[in-house]
Amino acid sequence: MKHIINIFEEISILFLLITLPFIGIQSIGNFVLPYNLIFFLGVFVFYVLRVFYFLSPGKKSEVSLNNGQILLLLFLFSNFISFLFSKYPYGNKIEFSQITAYVCLAFAFAGKEKDTSFNKLFWLLLGLGFLQSAYSLLQVLGIDFLNWSVNFGSRGFGTLVNPNHFAGYLVLIFPLSLYYFCSKGSKITKSVSGIFLVFIVSGIIISSSQGGILALGLSCAFFLYVSIKNNILKKEDRINLIITAFIIIILNGFLYTVTRDKRESLSTRVSQIMEEENPSIEGRLLNWSGTLLMIREKPFLGWGPGTYKDVFIKYRPLEFNKFEPAEHPRLYAHNDFLQVISELGLSGFCFFVFLLIVLFRNINKSLKKENPLFYLTLGSIVIAGLVAGFFNTAFTFHYFIMPSASLFWMVLGMGLKESTFEGPVVFKNKIKPAYFILLPFLFWGLFYQIRSYRGKSWNLKADRNLSRGLTDNAVNNLRQATYIDGENDMYRYSLSMQYLGSFFRTKGGEYLTLAREEMREAIKLNPFSGIYHYQMAQIYLNESPAALEKSIDEELNKAVELDPSYVRIYLLKAEWATEKQDLNEAIKIYKHIYEIEQGDKTNGYFSKNPNILSVYNFMGRFYYEKKNLQKSVYFYEKLITHLPEKGALFNNLGALYLEMKDYKMAEEYFNKAISLEPENIEFHKNLAYTYKVNNEPDKYDLKMKEIKEIINSSRGQDDTRSNKKGSRKK
């Protein structure tokens, strides 16, 4: 029996490990690894085995929940309360089930003091860290089998897509490699862990993540401080560490030398921290200011777990468009503590912080026990993780990104396991009742993860069929996804958009009705999405604009209120105001769009979407009618920068300069229009008139002669074509 249980435990550990380093692979083509489900299965099996077999001492004994474990339970229940009071069913369920898995993982690691399975797991984690780091070194040298290096130059990031994710993952593994390197193991153990240590540290350095490198430095400093204080390291260990540090310096010096022409140096990235206008810092400050507005509105219970990306849109500062396109949802606050407060409120945040405080106190106690190096390693892991989370360029990833989050909660459980504090509640049983308390949450989470993955698989099939042009098949796939997971507002939204597309192709009114019904369901499930209200307004506009005028106004106003940075909403609202002949409202909206554009100089909506051209065109025409020719010229010139191949636009600008009596500029623009459309008689006539009013008779005569030749040539071609047509008739 024990042998069978051990096999199941090994399988569950593999499930856990499969998901940790390779999440980035999902971005390749249409292949999506069901990592959430695989991870949850691993946690589920691992936790259940701990509860029903490994945690039982075989006889009744007095056991207690320590302070840290009570706080861990309270933190989970704070998630649960916030989940119950939230208005985001889908995002809540995904995030809450994931948090349940993390908490159960921490409890599983807090369960048994000595277990060989943990030792196996640690070595597997070290092996994965080594493979990630080795792959990152190849990326720096220009070898990238997954073709991701184009996104980050020669920075290393393994398979985790982002260098900061990669660094945050490795800083949690680094202390394990340090522990085994300085342990009393065999020479083979020391040699292998030494190789792992060299590659893992090098991986953190070549990621160029300021926070990751800072965490690495502080972790090393903490290790040396405690080692010297407790006289832990032998002379042999000190020599080995010095040799290893020297090898790391040589390796990274070599990597920097061979890539110096294309790699941003670490010193450059660190110096950027002190720059007054550092875009990385400025973007995060704006990110945090929007998050603080979220917190101010719901400070106690928060918006609910997993709701940040949906709610932040409403509080997103307008200036943030400089750093991220308005249509892209912000997934994280780039500050774990702010995000915990925004999602769980101050109550959940307090439990989270108290949990970390208790953990640090446990580590301080553990340093005085028999094997201080092991507990020192625990302290290094936690400190490295927290520091990396706090200082990483896109901080933090330990609470929300699965690879480092999983490691973080494992380590947290290891710290709680050695707690010396007795909680207020004492139970007499074979196992701790806390583990049974968590089982219903874990069963529910597994059920929801399975259902969620089934819905995702149908949604993935829909995407594949759409890419092949099989629209009807895609609609059927989305119907199936909605049937399985009807509380997923994104499935409802996608299905509505497909029905709307079917309406445009066939003009069948029944598709418009279906599109409206699905969009209504999506809005019910997520009433805070500005995009959904915007799409509903579009459906109403196609259905019956005159009869639904009030509904269209309500949907557009709601969309603007919820998503004030999404430019398409303003464009549609301006077009709708123009259609209603409310030109004052239209110009007011277009002016606002232009103000947004002024703050969007880098990678935002305006540099990518041609729909913004209607703003320039409208503003140019509006100011012309208001006799403000300078403003009109300004907007038409902006329009030309986007449409340099349109001769009519250059002709219009020439006419404006002609009216302003700037004949030189008028001549320049008319000539440009003629170069683009040499047979357009109107352009030539405008240029001739410019010569006439500017008292240039010679140029005027030559241009009029050229115009006559063009006209005669055009007539001759028309006569030839007419004769050919007549001959065919005969």
Structure description:
This protein has 730 residues and is mainly α. The chain contains 29 helices and two strands. The chain has helices at residues 2-19, 35-54, 67-85, 89-109, 116-140, 163-181, 187-206, 210-230, 235-258, 266-271, 279-297, 308-315, 336-366, 372-391, 402-417, 433-467, 471-484, 489-506, 509-525, 530-543, 549-562, 567-579, 583-598, 613-625, 629-642, 647-659, 663-676, 681-693, 697-729; strands spanning 61-64, 426-429. Helix 1 (2-19) packs parallel to helix 5 and helix 26 (647-659) runs antiparallel to helix 27 (663-676). It is elongated, with a radius of gyration of 33 Å.
Brief account:
The chain contains 29 helices and 2 strands.
Any idea what the radius of gyration is?
33 Å
Main pleated sheet: 2 strands, antiparallel
**Helix fraction bin:** over 70%
Overall mean pLDDT score? 76
